[in-house]
């Protein structure tokens, strides 16, 4: 009988005093007399990594989240020793490490506290599984706010919340429900007009507490693994988000069609049903670029097969759909049916590619095909094999994209809805249990899928969508917010989820428009489509168990609203494509919550509904029934009502009238918004002019337009067009300076510039200092000019 209670339960353990330190280029190692080591690495002047071990040495340093292709570097690093602490100084911040207990505090160069440890790093030995439960607690400042953490169905500001990160199949989840499908252990803190970020790169089940348990304490902890986190200094949220996105990586440009409207259902089958849906879109003149095939296209839900009764000639069908502008997307799940006659199963079995339990047998679980085994996507050899399986789908049949579902991984008819903890994984040569691999399983599946689709789609660009993801998944895939519900509450949730994902590095995200489960009213569907067209990924998806959810499932008014807003999305495609370009080039989120847009305005800190689409369009959805207007906060500056062209001054909450076929949309004064003509699908039309909607302001404003061939990789060789417009407005004149970069020559030859809010009557128009003849009467009536696309300076004089 063990009576030594110290052995039975040690409780929380802490680092003791520092006995020595060493420096190795950008890293400083602090050693304590109880075997704790802190490795502090300065990656940039504003980016520091903290890595702890309690065993006197570090295990292999490996992360799926970090983009290893991205280089780092700092300008200044100086270490000094004081009586009670060590000080590490860079060009942006100062970090102090206490000699007594390794607690850290970080300051700006003026000495203002940015973040400091409360208890700091501590741990609890895990006798059940081995290793440690690792913990960190930080002191929270007065008025501090918290944002980020990806896919959370809660308020934008996380102050007072406790959340959990464990990728979970949460069908018909509710507001505040934890956990959900994705794991993004990155948050942004904001206090005293300064922002910082924390990325806790630990793939075990993790938790974050934002002053929920204790009023002025923020903490994060994990069931296993290391205390390994990155600190990002702003002082602006933009700097924090950009730095995090650089660290975890950015995607390549999607094909432009992937930014169009998509239609999906569980399930469209047989072929006649797919063709009927596609034809109806063209008949009703509602643009659509992609149609999805859910699990029923397969033979007995076996991945990489076709049900020949429903789809007797898939290649012909996909080709015929493509001739009408539709790209076919198919679902692929991780569960491989246990069937000795099934070629994918036989290959994986022969090569020993399935996940195994601790005692040797393969992991077996029930999903759609029945009993299945599951590939270990953390094994690079398995990923390579999986990529090769896409040859027939992509190269031979002509499928344009792949949708990965059920990859949390989801398992039916078991209490925890996923693999048992004892399942073993390769983890790229770092063998581990499912406790460590669970949260990245879906990302590694998406990575393998991406590699396969990219290989066989070349020279075109791949398109992948995943349900489950961990930080860094954005390098391979887009995502959606999972199995939501057709309720007004879920419309509110979708709005916040996509904003939050955008500032958490995963910008290419959307929700199931209309709700996946249950059936929306026509009004709810219309309000959802009005929001969904302003999300980077735009797809209606629903469960056929609950009825039809195509636009024509509702009345004529809803059809007209759907057409109006999908048309608007297609007009704004060059603006949306430019947003995406800035996302991959600069790490700029495509959707910006108001606090991101103007963090110094305290009125933005708790706003949920309003967001900035790109850089210059303000959107506020209607989130309740029977509304003919709503109160909303218009950020500081001047904004034009998109529907009325009326100019309003921001910095206040105001009532905005609206209609059933409108939601509040405003455009920043000074913006130049590019527009294409409405097309039924990307590439349908050739056009000779690009429309530019110019919203006058007195002062200066810069706008940009990125274009390329809309697919392929020539843009990486400089064959793109990047236009910078510098607008300068004065009381009686307007100047537009145009600068072009890139070697791509667009098909159109001219701009149609619509002048909105011009406060004077135009008398003279000059292009590159030469006066041109223009019809003053026609301009007065129509307020637009047609000018050549290669001008340098356009001068409008009143």
Automatic annotation (TrEMBL):
<dbReference type="InterPro" id="IPR017853">
    <property type="entry name" value="GH"/>
</dbReference>
<dbReference type="InterPro" id="IPR011013">
    <property type="entry name" value="Gal_mutarotase_sf_dom"/>
</dbReference>
<feature type="domain" description="DUF5110">
    <location>
        <begin position="689"/>
        <end position="757"/>
    </location>
</feature>
<comment type="similarity">
    <text>Belongs to the glycosyl hydrolase 31 family.</text>
</comment>
<dbReference type="InterPro" id="IPR013780">
    <property type="entry name" value="Glyco_hydro_b"/>
</dbReference>
<dbReference type="InterPro" id="IPR033403">
    <property type="entry name" value="DUF5110"/>
</dbReference>
<feature type="domain" description="Glycoside hydrolase family 31 TIM barrel">
    <location>
        <begin position="251"/>
        <end position="579"/>
    </location>
</feature>
<keyword id="KW-0378">Hydrolase</keyword>
<dbReference type="Pfam" id="PF13802">
    <property type="entry name" value="Gal_mutarotas_2"/>
</dbReference>
<dbReference type="InterPro" id="IPR000322">
    <property type="entry name" value="Glyco_hydro_31_TIM"/>
</dbReference>
<protein>
    <submittedName>
        <fullName>Alpha-glucosidase</fullName>
    </submittedName>
</protein>
<dbReference type="Pfam" id="PF01055">
    <property type="entry name" value="Glyco_hydro_31_2nd"/>
</dbReference>
<dbReference type="Pfam" id="PF21365">
    <property type="entry name" value="Glyco_hydro_31_3rd"/>
</dbReference>
<dbReference type="InterPro" id="IPR025887">
    <property type="entry name" value="Glyco_hydro_31_N_dom"/>
</dbReference>
<dbReference type="InterPro" id="IPR048395">
    <property type="entry name" value="Glyco_hydro_31_C"/>
</dbReference>
<feature type="domain" description="Glycosyl hydrolase family 31 C-terminal">
    <location>
        <begin position="587"/>
        <end position="673"/>
    </location>
</feature>
<keyword id="KW-0326">Glycosidase</keyword>
<feature type="domain" description="Glycoside hydrolase family 31 N-terminal">
    <location>
        <begin position="38"/>
        <end position="209"/>
    </location>
</feature>
<dbReference type="Pfam" id="PF17137">
    <property type="entry name" value="DUF5110"/>
</dbReference>
<dbReference type="InterPro" id="IPR030458">
    <property type="entry name" value="Glyco_hydro_31_AS"/>
</dbReference>
């Amino acid at each position: 009988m063990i009576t030594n209670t110290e052995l039975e339960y040690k409780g929380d353990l802490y680092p003791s005093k520092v006995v020595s330190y060493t420096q190795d280029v950008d890293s400083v190692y602090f050693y304590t007399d109880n075997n704790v080591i802190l490795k502090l690495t300065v990656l940039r002047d504003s980016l520091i990594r903290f890595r702890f071990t309690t065993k006197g040495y570090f295990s292999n340093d490996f992360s799926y989240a970090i983009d290893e292709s991205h280089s780092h570097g700092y300008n200044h690093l100086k270490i000094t020793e004081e009586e009670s602490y060590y000080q590490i100084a860079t060009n942006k911040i100062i970090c102090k490490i206490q000699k007594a207990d390794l607690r850290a505090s970080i300051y700006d160069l003026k000495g203002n506290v940015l973040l400091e440890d409360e208890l700091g790093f501590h741990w609890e030995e895990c006798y059940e599984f081995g290793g440690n439960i690792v913990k960190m607690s930080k002191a929270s400042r007065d008025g501090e706010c918290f944002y980020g953490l990806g896919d959370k169905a809660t308020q934008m500001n996380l102050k007072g919340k406790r959340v959990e990160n464990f990728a979970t199949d949460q069908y018909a989840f509710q507001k505040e429900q934890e956990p959900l499908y994705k794991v993004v252990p990155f948050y942004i803190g904001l206090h005293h007009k300064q922002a910082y970020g924390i990325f806790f790169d630990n793939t075990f089940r993790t938790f974050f507490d934002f002053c929920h348990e204790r009023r002025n304490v923020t903490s994060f902890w994990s069931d296993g693994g290391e205390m390994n986190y990155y600190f990002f200094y702003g002082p602006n949220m933009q700097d924090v988000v950009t730095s995090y996105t650089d660290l975890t990586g950015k995607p390549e440009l999607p094909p432009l069609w992937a930014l169009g409207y998509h239609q999906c259902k569980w399930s469209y089958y047989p072929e006649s049903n797919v063709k009927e849906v596609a034809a109806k879109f063209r008949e009703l003149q509602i643009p659509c670029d992609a149609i999805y095939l859910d699990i029923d296209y397969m033979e007995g839900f076996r991945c990489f097969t076709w049900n020949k009764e429903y789809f007797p000639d898939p290649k012909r069908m996909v080709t015929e759909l493509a001739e009408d502008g539709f790209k076919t997307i198919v679902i692929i799940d991780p569960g491989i049916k246990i069937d000795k006659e099934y070629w994918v199963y036989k290959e994986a079995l022969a090569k020993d590619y399935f996940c195994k339990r601790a005692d040797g047998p393969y992991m077996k679980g029930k999903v759609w095909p029945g009993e299945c085994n599951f590939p270990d996507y953390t094994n690079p050899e398995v990923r390579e094999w999986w990529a090769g399986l896409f040859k027939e789908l992509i190269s031979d049949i002509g499928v344009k994209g792949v949708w990965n579902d059920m990859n949390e991984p989801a398992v039916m008819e078991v209490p925890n809805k996923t693999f048992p903890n004892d399942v073993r994984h390769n983890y790229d040569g770092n063998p581990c249990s499912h406790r460590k691999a669970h949260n990245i399983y879906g990302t590694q599946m998406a990575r393998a899928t991406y590699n396969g689709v990219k290989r066989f789609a070349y020279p075109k660009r791949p398109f992948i969508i995943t349900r489950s993801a961990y930080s860094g998944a954005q390098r391979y895939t887009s995502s959606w917010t999972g199995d939501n519900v057709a309720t007004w509450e879920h419309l509110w949730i979708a709005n916040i989820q996509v904003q939050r994902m955008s500032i958490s590095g995963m910008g290419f995200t959307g929700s199931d428009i209309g709700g996946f489960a249950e059936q929306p009213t026509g009004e709810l569907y219309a309000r959802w489509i009005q929001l969904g067209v302003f999300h980077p990924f735009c797809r209606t998806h629903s469960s056929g168990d609950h009825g039809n959810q195509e636009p024509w499932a509702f009345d004529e008014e809803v059809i007209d609203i759907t057409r109006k807003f999908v048309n608007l999305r297609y007009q704004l495609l060059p603006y949306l494509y430019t947003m995406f370009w800035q996302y991959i080039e600069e790490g700029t989120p495509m959707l910006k919550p108001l606090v991101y847009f103007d963090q110094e305005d305290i009125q933005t800190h708790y706003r949920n509904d309003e967001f900035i689409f790109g850089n210059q369009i303000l959107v506020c959805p209607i989130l309740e029934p029977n509304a003919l207007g709503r109160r909303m906060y218009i950020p500081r500056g001047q904004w034009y009502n998109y529907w009325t062209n009326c100019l309003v001054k921001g910095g206040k909450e105001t009532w905005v009238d609206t209609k059933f076929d409108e939601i509040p949309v405003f455009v920043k004064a000074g913006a130049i918004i590019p527009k294409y003509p409405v097309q039924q699908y990307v590439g349908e039309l050739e056009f000779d002019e690009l429309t530019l909607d110019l919203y006058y302001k007195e002062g200066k404003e810069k706008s940009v337009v990125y274009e390329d061939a809309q697919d392929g990789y020539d843009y990486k060789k400089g064959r793109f067009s990047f236009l910078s417009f510098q607008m300068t407005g004065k009381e009686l004149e307007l100047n537009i300076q145009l600068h072009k970069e890139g070697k791509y020559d667009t098909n159109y030859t001219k701009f149609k510039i619509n002048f909105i809010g011009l406060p004077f009557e135009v008398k003279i128009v000059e292009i590159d200092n030469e006066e041109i003849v223009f019809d003053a009467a026609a301009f007065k009536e129509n307020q637009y000019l047609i000018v050549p696309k290669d001008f340098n300076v356009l001068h409008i004089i009143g």
